[in-house]
Amino acid sequence: MNLMAAIAGALILLIAYPSTAVAHLVTTGLGPFYDGALHLLLSPEDLLGLVAAVALAGLQGAKAGRIAVIALAAAWFIFSFVGLNMAIGFDFPWLSIFSIIILGALVAVNPTLPPAVAALLAGLYGALHGLLNGSALAAMDSGLLSIVGVSATVLIIGLLCSALIVSLKAAWARIAIRVAGSWIAAVGMLMLGWMVRGSG
Amino acid sequence: MQNSKSAPLVVWILLLFWPLAAWAHVESGQAGGFASGLLHPVSGLDHVLAMVAVGLWGAQLGQPAMWLLPVAFPMMMALGGMLGLIGVPVPGIEIGIAVSGIVLGALILGQMKMPTPVALGIVAFFAIFHGHAHGTELAAGQNAILYSLGFVIATGTLHAVGITLGLIHRWNAGRVALRCAGSLVLAGGLFFLWGALS
Q: Do A16 and B18 touch (CB under 8 A)?
């Protein structure tokens, strides 16, 4: 319970981190690997969907959680690499927002999914955001180590969240995850509104 | 023992890392970031009353409604907020908000039991009015995602406050107190309706 509070506090801390740094690759002074890692940690729009994807898989059980985390991180890395090297300029923020809404809503509804489907959804999210990240990092003249940093951070966050959610047995705790999913979907819908209005 | 100390420590670290830059330019009506999003839902008593009432009613209805209502409300409120942001008009917003207080207050006062889908429908219907009002009130934002996060977290916290208060329902005296709270929500709704109509 206290471990959960600590992890929740840490996540809130990351989400509440000043957003002005999101617009560019933050230099940590520790090299491109950590710059890439920090890039993800300072991107709440990436983190929200990531948490939703692993939460959805985690609610399905240990097997789904395990496969989904691997699919998510692998797809994130591969498609970051594609985005970084192909210079395709992939930039569709609405696609990212829709993915957050869909994953958040699925967590809220908590349908019974086969592990392969949960992993597929996580992989699709990883592919989409990997491509977005890779394209963004290409525009910043970043290298391979940056996407390794991003992908390693995806894997670590995914593993931690998935392990936490899989371990939840109490009904209220699982419902709390579903409530969090509804919040993620709600944030996505508001984001969509901001984007359509053109002031977000 | 160590774990029991870690949670307050994390909260302290969170407070230390709180983005000070945001405080420097948070102004009324501006969507500046997480802090302004967090404050927006608690800035109007009509909204606070309805959102706490959702939690109270959920607690009174018991499981699964107690948990499902706070799942449905933020999503439908966000849908209303989205409609407000993109300029889709919804008629009678202020009246709808006031009526939400009246209806929810009456349901708590009457200790009304009903099927969960019907309760979800009622809450979802009123959530659109509340969300739309918030959506149209928002000025151009500096950081939409942080503002939205703060906004949704504050709304959810108000539901949690309602649920927590509503847990007194398990005692006889608590049930009476909860119905009294419903009458206050009802009175508040009538007051806001009077304001909306005048």
A: yes
Asked if residues A185 and A101 have their Cβ atoms less than 8 Å apart, the reply is yes
Residue of A nearest to B134 (CA): A190
| A100/B148 Cα distance (integer angstroms) | 13
Q: Is residue B175 part of a domain?
A: yes
* A17, A44, A108 member nearest B75 (Cβ): A108
How close does chain A come to B125, measured CA to CA in Å? 15
Which two three-digit tokens encode residue B64? 């699964």
The DSSP result for A21-46, as a single string, is GGGS----SS-HHHHHHHHHHT-HHH
Confidence of residue A10 (pLDDT cuts 50, 70, 90): low
CB contact under 8 A, B149 and A192: no
Residue A179 near residue A55 (C-beta atoms within 8 A) = no
Q: How confident is the model at residue B108 (pLDDT cuts 50, 70, 90)?
A: very high
Residue B166 lies inside a defined structural domain of this protein: yes
Tell which residue, A174, A179, A184, has the closest CA to residue A60. Answer: A174
Length of chain A: 200
Distance of residue B194 Cα from the nearest chain A Cα, in angstroms: 30
Q: How far apart are CA B3 and CA A181, in angstroms?
A: 26
DSSP code at position A110: -
B187 touches chain A (CB under 8 A): no
Interface confidence (ipTM) of the complex: 0.72
Looking at the DSSP assignment, which residues form a beta bridge with residue B141? Answer: B31
Contacts of B69 in chain A (CB under 8 A): none
pTM attached to this predicted model: 0.76
Cβ pair B17:A13 closer than 8 A:
yes
Q: Domain residues for B70?
A: 32-197
Taking the Cβ of residue B118 and every Cβ of chain A, the question of whether any pair is shorter than 8 Å is answered with: no
A29's CB contacts (< 8 A; 6+ apart) are: none
Asked if residue B27 belongs to a domain, the reply is: no
The reply to whether residue A196 touches residue B86, judged by beta carbons under 8 angstroms, is yes
Residue B82 maps to a domain: yes
